[in-house]
Amino acid sequence: MTLPIAQIEADFHAHIDSSPLVISASTGSGKSTCLPVWAKKIGRVLVVQPRRIACTSLAEYLAEQSQQPLGKEIGYAIRFESHFDENTQVVFATPGVALRWFFESKLKEFDVVMLDEFHERRWDMDLLLALLKSHQAHKLIVTSATLNTQPLCDYLHATHLHSEGKMFPVEETFIADDMRVMPNKHDLAPRVYQACTQALNETQGDILVFLPGKGEIQSAASALKELDAIVIVIGLYSGCHKSQQDLALKQQSKQRIILATNVAETSLTIPNITCVIDSGLERRTHLRGGKTVLALEAIAADSAKQRLGRAGRTQAGRCIRLYGQYAPLIKTTPPEIHREALSELVLASACAGFNIHELQFLEALPSSSLNTAITQLQKVAALDNDLNATEHGKVLYPLPIDAEYAFLITQMPSGALKQAMIDAIAVLSVPARVYQLPNNSEQLEELNKVLPNQCDLELAINLLRGKAPHVNVEQHAFEEAKQFSKQLREAFSLPELSKAANFDRNLLLQHIAQARPDLLYIKRNNRRGAFGNGHSEVIPAKESRINDKAQAMIVLDTYAMAGKGTKQAMTLATCAAPIPLSLISEFAQCETTLNKAEIIDDDIMVNISHVFAGVELSSKLEPVTSDTLIPACVELILNNQLMPGVAEKVTGSIDYHTLYNLAENITETLPTAEQYLLETLTNLGIREQDDLALIEPEDLFYQGVESWLIEPFKEKYPLKIDLPELKLSVEYFFNAKRLTLHHESGARKDAPKRWELPAWLGFKIKYKKASKVVDVK
Fold first, then answer.
1. pTM over 0.70
2. What distances in angstroms separate CA 513 from CA 379, 517, 616, one per listed residue?
3. What residue segments make up the domains of the chain, in order of their start?
């Protein structure tokens, strides 16, 4: 069968040697299978494919077509698994693998690099493209199903080739109560069942159902169980079993319902699909508090178009949408660089030999995310001040885990602690949930006897080592965690998992706190039971073992519960370890505050508080030091406990200076009495309490306006008035030529008389007592 992509073969060969190629073609046109075969005629080909399932299935398909064993002429490389050697002509690899190869050798083993499905706009694909553009050493092919290709062609100075695919008509149906209702997860499984039963009556081919994730796939599969007699129900998602992939990717004799994530949107060709059921949902990353989190979102219009296209590949088809026809979907899915943390991108760039500011990206990196990433990487000593990778950074980057996790491993002082940290991080690095706590109370009680510390970190380590009874594991995710542990143990030349060394939990927590004090959280005094670190607030998740007695904890993993607004959002701690408050005192960045100064037996004492995240850790009365002497003296002066009368004199002088400036329309920022006294005592060189004997009260007086100016002004515009049985304060409004007399104290009931007051020529005078205001005449 001739595939649509064949129409551009001659142009492909005509231009591949002279310029980069940007090739746009619809899904199923044959670009992922034909282009690598064409390209290998001019050299060894690396095909970078965003998804692992697509990477392995494409390699297996082409190897089968070549009638050669997998790994001989056609091979692949994904995390933890590879089938190729130095003679393999076409190697499919995921972006993470390709980036590490670029770091090691600049991909010098390959002549042609093909970035497939570039329209998905993953950050690692954007980075690879920027690196390859800068390196200028490979024939470059970039393919896309949906991308607006002009900006990409301009960026690469590339030749654009387009293949028109064959698309049969697809009839759309919308199942929704309102034409504008957005995709939502409410009663999703029953609605999928309803749509599937409708589709089975209307189509003879297979049915592809797009769902946001594994959990929704499993729920829908359970709802469809009663259809097992007439159809095969298959789940297709990242990490699903190889047998499920084979059932999905090869046509069966029985009609199929394939429940898939958007891995089936463009990356995979699934035969015999004549009906698509679109939930309109996906799980998409976005930034929250500087971290990448995963949230349930409505798809964009470009994804909706791709999903529909799956139904019209070989014959006329149907598309059933589980949302309104006029739902206001966003136009396109934002690129990952705009919705994810950039730490890994920045470190990868530096390790490949490029300062991040030296690379030209297809779209500029967001400055806020970029600056946050640089700060985080410098905090873990992965980047130097010139944003080049340090030797430490080069150690961290090749590890198949987040750089901040890798940093923790390197900071452990012994092999036993390194092993413990590796096993915990191995569990945390699996994107899927690895385990669930037992529901049975007896089993939970037995688990608590074996692991009594109510510690998620300890549980993760012991789970991987087979020492956590009754904990339910997700087998595939658990195996992936063990693979992480194996690879990390090998990288650090440590014994294999079966020979894991015992570790001291308290020592482990101490070194984590020392290496990453920003992971320390203390219980806040609020009703939510939240913990804070001065920058963010978290609440232990339901799946966490942290109990109500914990007063502080180390938090190693979180996820965000998105709300409609910032106040509704919650960050939940999923992997935490309870710690004593002493670790907070020792390693956290606490604030030291001077609460109260006192004079005891002629010695100045201060009450010093150590505060973390708004919680007081300790408070102690101590003799003043050189750092606390002047603030203590200022407090005592303002309270008239030291140099009585000085505070009143200074405050009054500053008040009159302020009033003088107001009368003369002078704009000037004046100090408060506290600020003035702090500065004056510092300038006088006060270092020890004995130095106070060398100064007189007059040395602290404030003189902001020359006395020959301020003295007559004070007589003309007093701030206080003392009358028989009445004390008043005066508020002036010079521009309006009016003033208000405020009742301060005194038994007089009536307002003051005009003759009792200063002249105040031209001023209108009001008298205010409580809420009552009267004119003074």
1. yes
2. 14, 5, 19
3. 4-163, 170-338, 399-583, 718-775
